[in-house]
Each structure stands twice: as structure tokens, then as C-alpha cells.
Amino acid sequence: MPPSSSSRRRRPAADPPILPPAAAAEEEETRDWAELPLDAISAILHKLDHVDILMGAGQVCRSWRGAARDEPELWRRIDMLGHAELFNQLNLHGMAQEAVRRSAGRCEAFWGEYAGDHDFLLYLGDQAPSLKSLRLISCYNFFDEGLTEAIVKFPLLEELELSLCANVGESGVFGVVGNACPQLKRFRFSKNVFYDFEASGYDRDDEALGIASMRELRSLQLFGNCLTNKGLTAILDNCLHLESLDIRHCFNVNMDETLRAKCAKISTLRPPHDSTDDYDFQVQEPVWADSDPWSGDSMGYGSDYELDSEDYDDYCDPSRYLDGVYEDDLDEEDRMILRGMRALMNLVTYSLFATPKLPIIPARPRLGRNPPTAKETRDWAELPLDAISSILHKLDHVDILTGAGQVCRSWRGAARDEPELWRRIDMLGHAQLFNKLNLHGMAQAAVRRSAGRCEAFWGECAGDDGFLLYLGDQAPSLKSLHLISCKDVSDEGFTEAIQKFPLLEDLELSLCPYVGESGVFRVVGKACPQLKRFRLNRDGFYYLDSRDYDMDEDALGIATMRGLRSLQLSGNRVTNKGLDAILDNCRHLESLDIRRCFNVKMNGTLRAKCARISSLRLPHEPN
């Protein structure tokens, strides 16, 4: 008799055969992502952010690296927005240049946030002759001169954005844009705060009159601009194709009947007092001429895109140098090697095996698990030279000299024989090693490896008079020099060395107590005619009531640096006399920081002279 249906339902199913572990592993379906077809890899990469591709996904394995490197179409429209937090951790300017290089001349759009300086713009102009869209947000490392030189290389440009780019807008630069880019249809030049200053000699409509030469504009945003009715009238009279106009927070514009009639043809109009709820950036309260704009509360310089990482207090914070990663029972050499190797292996593992936004790639194994099988192990000495170089470019130069650059022969060769790795040398953040390692000698070794191509040296407790003279002989093209807590540098040594840097654009001498007298800054002003940024910060303000001491000696020397755009003098003894001299002679100043300069009294005369300064930090402002 056949069994009933109920009995069949209750009958237990036969257990599957038990396979040995090896057989089970063989039967389990596995996938080798390196064997994905090229079109599948390309489809995945096209959905990712370009910074993520450069940092992770494009380094998974040889086939993925090839797809990320050799497909120009992937880089036709480059988007590097949304990575402001990486500015001090990665060379975003260099990554932007690499992205453009991979486009093989086909780049039509570049959007960058904190990613784009003077050199990059010139490179972009040479490599992207068909560029149609250029958006730069919070890019503080290029100026009117750089934009003027580069923009003439983009004759096909249709869209331009320069939002929160504080160092661009004068010297008739927008008139140059109008002439160089006859097809420009969309322009955005937005700020995060409106300033109502009544300074003689400052033309509020300088920018607007330049924009009026962009006759084919369809869309224009000038958020927080100081233009008046005169400038807006010029734009409306010359840009006859305008369809969208955003002048929110342009409070010098009075929408009278004449302007309303001219704006009648604009289909999308955002007048000065319109809502800012949909504005992309954080909006600061406007600063009015009849209010007290000099208090710390009203000078709202912070924004979603503002970097505070270079603030003065960083140099006095001992926690900056404590990371708690060293074992107490190791000597200093072993600790340094351990630190370099940890940084190296974390970066290698992340770059080659993990891509946070790409879930199909296996995550890196956690420490403490069983060691990988022979099939999974990797001999780092066999990595191709370009992969080793890519890893070393992401590491600290002190770590390279003491750890990562000593892994094996191939790694030592890559660290020693590639001058490009040492073009911009960063030795900040190692002050705690000053009494345990010869940082001066390490700095000299780093410069020697640059083979004469060094353009930037940043050293903390790493640099004495002898090193500066060596740097002068070996780095004739130096553009940036940051010396922090370099107590072995004297006025005499610095004066002799600085004359060897005629191309210098950026100079910092923070917490260097033996530099600043004997007219040394007059020598700097004469020797470095291209200097644009200078920082001279002290660790505290000391009041001296002595007739034998000229409290304005530093300032009168700085006044000879006529090309300055940015100046920081935190904790200086400068008085109104010295600040007057600086403001009268440094006519291009756009950023001025005189916090803790308590001898300065901000009277009406100084306030009027400071009206043209777009970023101003006053003596009593908090840090």
C-alpha cells in the first residue's frame, strides 16, 4: 500500500552527503574579480567617484588598474567634489593632475574642491583644449595671475564656477574671461558672506564690469557680491541672453523701477533679499558698515568648506605629536621602523584589497585571524615600480626615510631614485624626535634625492643654517618654504640663504625665535619679488615698553614684500605705525591675520584701510 500524503509530508528529508572540508571548499562557488571582463570593470568604475578610483578601486589588481588607467572615456568628465576633509591628508592637486593625464586630452569637464592650484590650471590648459565645464570650489592656491594665464587656453568653455575662491576677482580678470571664452553660458562666482565697506579707492563694480563682457551668458550667480546698481545695469545691458540671475545677499543693489524693468526678461530671478534655504554653502550674517564688524562674533569666516587645520594654535598643542602607537620596550630606531611599516601596510592593504564604496571587493582580513594561505600571500618586493611609487607618494617623508623606504631593495630604489617623490618635501609633525634623530641630516638627504627639482620644503625642528644654505644650492626653483620651531636658524644664516630663492611664493617662519631682526625681512622683500604668502607667528605676545626696541621693525621689513596676498602675524608686537606701512605698500593683500597683536588699536583709519581685505582676523579674535 503506498504511503499517504500525510506520511510523506512527515518523512524527514535525506541528509546531504558530508564532504571533507577541502572538497566543500572546492565545491563552493568562488569569484575572482580580476577575471571580470573589461566592460564589466569599466561599468563599475563609471559609477564611482574619481577620488575613490584613484585611492582604492583603481588599485585592486592589475586588470582593474589597467581599466582605471587606460580608458580615457572614464576621465572625460572629472568630479572631485566632496573631499575637502582630505586636503591635508592627500595631495589633491597632484591627484587632479593625474586624473587629467588619464583623460589623454579628452577631458571636457573638471570639478574640483580644494583640488586645483596655479600649476594644475596651467597643466589643465595644456592637456584639455576641449574643456567645456570648469568648477572650482574653495581653491585658495591660485590667484588672479594664474587664472588669467590659464583661462585663455579654454576657448570652448561654456560653464565656469569660482565659488569660495577668495584670491580671485581683481585685476580685470573677468574681462579676460569674457574675451577668452566667447561661448561662456553659465558663470557662478559666489561667496558665503556679504561685506558692506565704504572704502575710498575700492571699486565695488570692478567684478561686475568684467562680467558684463561675457555677452553670451544664460545663467549668472553672484551670491554675496558687493556690486551696485551700476554694475548690475552694465551686466543687464550687455548680457542680453540672460535667463537666470541670482543676486541674493548683494545688498548694495537697490531694486528700483529701472532695474525691475530691465529684469523683466529674466525668467528665473533671485533678488538680494530672497530666501537662502536652497543655497549650497553655509551662509554667514552680512557685515554692515554702520555695525561693529570688528568683533569676533560678526566676522563669520567659518563655512562648510573652510579649512581650520593650519590655525596658529596647532603649533602650540603638544597633543599634535602624541599618537600612542609605540611600544615602550622598543628603542627609538625600532619604534620609527614600526611606525613606518604600520603606515605602509595599512595603506597597501587598503589600496590593494579594500574599496569602501565597492561592496563586491573583499575587505581586508582583520589582525589576529589565521594567516593567509600560500595562494593569498603577496611578495611586496615584486610589486611593479609604479605601484610602489604610488604607495610611497601617499606616505610621510620621514616615514619613508626611516621605515617604508627600507622594506627591501626594490622599495629602497623607488624611494631613492625617483626625484618626483621629493619635489614637495613634508617633514612636519615629528618634533618629538628632534633629540633622538638627526632631522637636519634627514632634511638634507630628502633634498638631495630631489635631484634639483625640489619646489617645496616644510620642516618642523628640521632645518639649521647649514641646511638652508644646502637647500639654496640644491633647490633653485623653490616656491614654498615652511620652517616651524627651527631654533637652529639665525638671522645671519637665513639672510644668506634667502637670496638663493628668487622664485619663492610662500614663506613661513613660525616659532623660529632667532629670526626677525637685523633687517632680515627687508632682505626677503628684495630677494623674493614673487612672494605672495608670509606667516610669522609667535607662541605668545610679550609687551616691551623699551625705547631701545623698535616694535615695528618686523612690520617695516614686511612692508617691502609688495606682492603679498596673505599675511599672518599672530602674537607680533607691531603697532598701528607698522600695520599702516604694510597696508600702504602691500596693495594686493586679501588675507590678514593679526590675532594677539595687542599693540594694534583698530581706529577709524585702520578700519578704512582694511576694508579691501576679504579675510581679516583681528587682535582680540579667539583662536
Molecular structure report:
- With 623 residues, the protein is of the alpha/beta class.
- Among the domains are: 34-270, Ribonuclease Inhibitor (Leucine-rich repeat, LRR (right-handed beta-alpha superhelix), Alpha-Beta Horseshoe); 310-370 and 378-410, no CATH class.
- 32% of the residues lie in helices and 10% in strands.
- The chain contains 23 helices and 16 strands.
- The chain has helices at 5-10, 21-27, 38-46, 50-55, 62-69, 92-102, 118-127, 144-151, 173-180, 206-211, 229-238, 257-262, 332-353, 385-392, 397-402, 409-417, 439-449, 465-474, 491-498, 520-527, 553-558, 576-585, 604-609; strands at residues 77-80, 109-113, 133-137, 159-163, 186-188, 219-221, 244-246, 268-270, 424-427, 456-460, 480-484, 506-510, 533-535, 566-568, 591-593, 615-617.
- An 8-stranded parallel β-sheet has the order 1-2-3-4-5-6-7-8, covered by helices on one side. An 8-stranded parallel β-sheet has the order 9-10-11-12-13-14-15-16, covered by helices on one side.
- Helix 17 (439-449) links the parallel strand 9 (424-427) and strand 10.
- The radius of gyration is 29 Å and the shape is flat.
- The termini are far apart.
- Residues 1-30 and 292-378 have low confidence and may be disordered.
- InterPro entries: F-box-like_dom_sf, F-box_dom, Leu-rich_rpt, Leu-rich_rpt_Cys-con_subtyp, LRR_dom_sf.
